[in-house]
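Supplementary Text 2. Reproducibility record for the structural model of the 248-residue chain.

All settings were left at their defaults, and a single model was retained for analysis rather than an ensemble. We include the record here because the model underlies the residue-level annotations in Supplementary Table 4.
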Amino acid sequence: MKYQNPKLRQMLAAEYVLGTLHGAARRRFERLLKKDAALVKELRYWERRLAPLQRSFKPVVPREIVWAEIEQRIQAARVVALPAARSVTEDRGRLGFWRTLSAAASLAAVGLGYALWLQLQQSPQVIEQVRTVQVIQPMPYVAMLQPTNVPAQWIVVVTPARRSLKVSAAGSYPHDLDTQSLQLWVLDDTGQPHPMGLMPEGSNADLPLPEMKMPQKPVIAVSLEPKGGSPTGLPTGPVLTTAPLLQL
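Retained model, structure tokens:
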């Protein structure tokens, strides 16, 4: 793999910070960090850039199944001590007890068999069983947009499963609010832009996600458009900033 490729180094550093770089790829990246000072600098840049994402997420209480899994692993890790070996005399003393218990168990088995036979003579009952199936939803996409030389920054979170698009803004882009609007776009794998809605004038906004299939490698962009958005369905003004949408 060509680790000197600037685009590849940026993507690896961003994925490492987001926690989406797993397995052998993550271990190779960590080995490179030990001997590549420039890569460490790239990593620190993405740490500073993605740190504001933490403020936009709300704490989530773990589901009960998570606690059950943890408890199961704890129980499996415990060591059960074996009982000490008994002497021959003790075993003989217990033999009579086990014979008596065996006879009682046989009688109980006969009684249980008779009860089951009686049960089978009755009309069968229909039992409805409801099975709950957990559906795992895809993780959301996140992008950070920042125009050049302007104190404005937007964090965009796209959740296709919920048809949700959230925008958190820090700072503002200087433009005429009476005649201009900032419009959000997503570029598909062929580079074709699709409108995603207007950027909020305030600090935060929840927008409905348009009906569309998410690209394999989506890229999000912001352009300066006439008031109310592009009249053609395509960007007509300058593109202010672009960034890849990374799936968490």
